[in-house]
Design brief:
YceD, elongated, 2 domains, alpha+beta, Nucleic acid-binding protein
């Protein structure tokens, strides 16, 4: 599916919007931008691109992408499906419409060339909606956290429920001898 058009090419869609329904492959570009992404299935794009008198271009899409990301605990590959609403407004260089005429919640971009290229905005939408924590199904079902010699990972609830020793408020006891080092300056 095409995601880049010359603005002259979009003139024929002034009376009725251009319907977009297909898939795009931005896997390599997304992997270059975010090294954490292991793979990306083709991104499904469905929606419309409306041309209002060659002065404003409205893009309303729904993006569906299947990403493979490493688990936050074990680094095992995890498939994550994202469904992202995408709505942006583009103003050509010679548009008499100003950005100020739109509401604060609308995303309005001024084009610097005579083309409308949606690849980077689609990639940006996917990257900003990528989850920060990903777990395998087994990790979600289990409360078991990674551990090693002399260390354990605790969940937030486990951390708050564990008894704390009195040393936490006083600091590391190995540094107790240093607390009197600058006593004269404190007084």
């Amino acid at each position: 599916m095409k995601t880049k058009w010359a603005l002259n090419e979009l003139k024929k869609y002034q009376d009725h919007p251009l319907q977009l329904d297909g898939s795009v492959d931005f896997e390599q570009s997304l992997k270059n931008r975010d090294k954490e992404i292991l793979s990306v299935e083709s991104i499904q794009v469905k929606g419309s691109l409306a041309n209002e008198k060659n002065e404003v271009f409205y893009v309303d899409l729904v993006l569906t992408a299947l990403l493979t990301l490493p688990s936050s605990r074990s680094l095992e590959p995890v498939d994550v499906t994202l469904t992202i609403p995408f709505s942006e407004i583009y103003l050509p260089q010679d548009s008499p419409v100003s950005i100020e005429s739109f509401t604060e919640g609308e995303i309005v971009e001024e084009l610097t060339t005579d083309t409308l290229d949606l690849q980077k905005p689609i990639e940006d939408a996917i990257l900003t909606n990528k989850p920060t924590q990903v777990y395998t199904e087994e990790e979600r079902q289990s409360d078991t956290m990674p551990s090693g010699k002399d260390w354990d990972v605790l969940g937030e609830e486990q951390y708050h429920n564990q008894p704390h020793s009195g040393n936490d408020s006083e600091g590391d006891p190995r540094f107790a001898a240093l607390k009197d080092l600058f006593k004269d300056k404190d007084e």
